[in-house]
């Protein structure tokens, strides 16, 4: 097992890390899903998390977003310790995510899905909603408008906006999920296999879109990805997990040449 | 059959197209007017009036439970607990039951001379809503961390606990020789609603009672409609659809569910308080598990998650239970030569109705807009597109 520690590449001046995981471990009963993993995500970068199936990537994601609590270790968002925070609190502090197997609210329209994404940024409470004061009305209208803008931004067209999410074609559902995540105005966007089920052209388009999102919205993106072409094309840094352990980290080209990584993916060469 | 259905749908769409855009508002106004003048069409103490009042009070409960089960997707099998608490709120705050106390607020001249706690009905209504909302939080806090079926089991248990406490409450002493409830004897001689200028309500004239419960229905309906299209309403539906995704979008799980649960509880309590004064007795025997199921049946028959469905479901079962079966059709079996009354098999009739409903119209009488979209027409264009372009790779995007 070799471990490569390269400094973050060519980003200018100081690089603050948006997210830092320190010695994070997660066990389910006797199974160690994530084993003592430390890594950080520099601000304004695109970082990929790769590894064979069952390597613990999604488990790590679930810990970063608060769905699981780490057994050991801690997670910092900027200066803030979010190790034991609830998922909705973490979202409020600026982390949004998509899911490997799309999890839209099927009985809601595309626009409504994105409006739910705004939840953490809205203020209307019980009595505000009942009496619908002018500012609540305004908030509601602005949210609806902004949701439509977001749907247009991710590349959907008007007629689709008011269709039920469960009736949309697969590719459109992926886009709605990204729009819904963007609605919470995140600093850090976690994408869990965003190109799963896409053809090469669509993957290519999404790769470009990820860069555009980062620049337009001042985002930092962390993604889990299996498509090596996407990983190599988009990421500034790659972290490799295998059996829950971090086995390599660094620039894509360096990681690709790492014998430990090749072994993990292709098996031991004789 | 399906051809006929398609033709019917086409016909309906054509009619809808020709109606002016203000039709829904016009419909709402005419329903409101009908609701207000309805009592003038019937004798003030008729069986029909009585059934109408009970049916409207059921509709209020059904609207409350619809928030919990329909909107937020929390299967509550113990809703009778809030009916009981609401009714007891009335018993405690509007009768001579706590005979050592001397509290009077805005009540009739007669009641203000009697011992006990006597508050104006509106104050009791607010009190019942608050007590039930608080109880909702207390019951909900440990319960709502659970998921799906487990919530149903625990709420069922809580419903039973409250019912048992109601029966055995006459053994629970609260000081001064007073007890918590009067068990199966019932708290009786509760105050009738009294309003300055109108006087006390009497059971000889049911019209004021009707307008009172109709007003409560309008308030509850208004709150329901407002909440449905709000940040909170969307959060409830999101939780119902996918809990994991919802919390990841920033929706606080327990807080949001608790809100649904206690708002539903508050409405159940308001209806319960009304029943307390209308039946003139708060008797522990009223609060059976079967009643929870009865209200749930109203919500389901009306259309889970649909506000107008909950109203129609509540009214329908209210009329069937209190008018159609006991008044209109009760002697039908004896006319046909059978030796029983229809009221003795009413639960069988409800069960049968529910089965028929699930077979013929599972989405309910007036389905929720979302479910309607899910189950019908909307799916057609998407399918048609797929069918037309089978060769296009990634045709959808």
CATH architecture call of the largest domain in chain A: 3-Layer(aba) Sandwich
Q: For the residues shown, what is the average pLDDT of chain B?
A: 88
Strand runs of chain B, count = 9
- Overall spatial form of chain A: globular
Structural class by SSE content of chain B: mainly alpha
Q: Return residue spans of chain A where pLDDT drops below 50 for at least 5 consecutive residues.
A: 1-13
When the domains of chain A are counted, the total is: 2
What's the number of helices of chain A? Answer: 11
CATH topology of the largest domain in chain A: Rossmann fold
**Rg of chain A:** 19 Å
Shape of chain B: globular
Q: Helical amount among residues of chain A, as a percent range?
A: 25-40%
State the end-to-end CA separation of chain B: 36 Å
Record the strand order, biggest sheet of chain B: 1-3-2
Order of helices and strands of chain B: HHHHEEEHHEEEEEHHHHEHHHHHH
Structural class of chain A: alpha/beta
Largest interface: A-B, 51 and 39 residues
Largest sheet of chain B: 3 strands, mixed
């Amino acid at each position: 097992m070799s471990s490569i520690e390269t400094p973050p590449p060519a980003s200018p001046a100081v690089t603050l890390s948006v997210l830092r995981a320190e010695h994070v471990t997660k066990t389910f009963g006797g199974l160690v899903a994530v084993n003592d993993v430390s890594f950080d995500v520099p601000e304004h970068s695109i970082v990929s998390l790769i590894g064979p199936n069952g390597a613990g990537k999604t488990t790590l994601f679930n810990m970063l977003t608060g769905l699981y609590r780490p057994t050991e270790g801690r997670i910092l968002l900027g200066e803030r310790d979010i190790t034991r925070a609830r998922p909705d609190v973490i979202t409020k502090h600026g982390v949004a995510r998509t899911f490997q197997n799309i999890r839209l609210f099927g009985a809601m329209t595309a626009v409504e899905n994105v409006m739910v994404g705004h939840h953490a940024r809205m203020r209307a409470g019980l009595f505000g909603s009942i009496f619908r004061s002018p500012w609540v009305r305004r908030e509601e209208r602005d949210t609806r408008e902004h949701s439509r803008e977001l749907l247009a931004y991710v590349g959907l067209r008007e007629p689709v906006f008011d269709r039920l999410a469960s009736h949309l074609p697969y590719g459109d559902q992926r886009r709605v999920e990204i729009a819904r995540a963007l609605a919470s105005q995140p600093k850090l966007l976690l994408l869990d296999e965003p190109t799963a089920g896409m053809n090469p052209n669509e993957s290519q388009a999404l790769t470009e879109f990820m860069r555009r999102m980062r620049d337009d919205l001042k985002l930092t993106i962390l993604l889990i990805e299996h498509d090596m072409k996407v990983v190599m094309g988009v990421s500034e840094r790659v972290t490799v997990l295998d059996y829950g352990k971090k086995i390599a980290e660094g620039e894509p080209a360096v990681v690709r040449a790492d014998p430990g990584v090749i072994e993990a993916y292709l098996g031991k060469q004789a | 059959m399906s051809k006929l259905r398609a033709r019917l749908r086409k016909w309906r769409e054509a009619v809808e197209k020709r109606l002016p855009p203000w039709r829904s508002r016009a419909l709402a106004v005419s329903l409101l007017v009908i609701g207000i003048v309805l009592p003038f069409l019937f004798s003030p103490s008729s069986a029909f009036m009585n059934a109408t009042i009970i049916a409207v009070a059921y509709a209020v409960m059904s609207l409350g439970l619809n928030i919990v089960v329909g909107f937020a997707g929390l299967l509550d099998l113990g809703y009778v607990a809030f009916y009981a608490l609401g009714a007891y709120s009335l018993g405690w705050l509007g009768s001579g039951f706590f005979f050592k106390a001397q509290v009077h607020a805005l009540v009739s001249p007669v009641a203000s001379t009697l011992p006990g706690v006597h508050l104006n009905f509106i104050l009791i209504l607010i009190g019942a809503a608050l007590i039930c909302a608080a109880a909702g939080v207390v019951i909900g806090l440990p319960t709502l961390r659970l998921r799906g079926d487990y919530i149903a089991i625990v709420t069922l248990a809580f419903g039973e606990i409250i019912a048992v406490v109601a029966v055995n409450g006459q053994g629970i002493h609260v000081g001064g020789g007073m007890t918590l409830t009067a068990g199966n004897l019932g708290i009786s001689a509760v105050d009738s609603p009294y309003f300055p200028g109108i006087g006390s309500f009497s059971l000889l004239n049911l019209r004021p009672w009707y307008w009172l419960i109709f007003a409560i229905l309008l308030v509850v309906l208004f709150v329901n409609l407002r909440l449905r299209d709000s940040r909170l309403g969307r959060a409830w539906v999101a939780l119902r659809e996918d809990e994991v995704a919802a919390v990841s979008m920033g929706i606080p799980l327990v807080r949001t569910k608790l809100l649904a649960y206690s708002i539903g509880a508050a409405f159940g309590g308001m209806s319960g308080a009304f029943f307390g004064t209308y039946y003139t007795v708060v008797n522990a025997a009223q609060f059976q598990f079967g009643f929870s199921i009865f209200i749930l049946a109203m919500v389901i028959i009306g259309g889970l998650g649909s506000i107008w469905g909950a109203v129609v479901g509540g009214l329908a079962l209210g009329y069937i239970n209190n008018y159609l079966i006991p008044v209109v059709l009760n002697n039908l079996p004896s006319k046909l030569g059978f030796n029983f009354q229809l009221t003795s098999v009413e639960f069988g009739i409800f069960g049968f109705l529910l089965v028929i409903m699930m077979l013929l119209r599972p989405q309910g009488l007036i389905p929720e807009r979302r479910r309607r979209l899910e189950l019908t027409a909307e799916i057609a264009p998407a399918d048609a597109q797929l069918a037309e372009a089978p060769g296009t790779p990634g045709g959808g995007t």
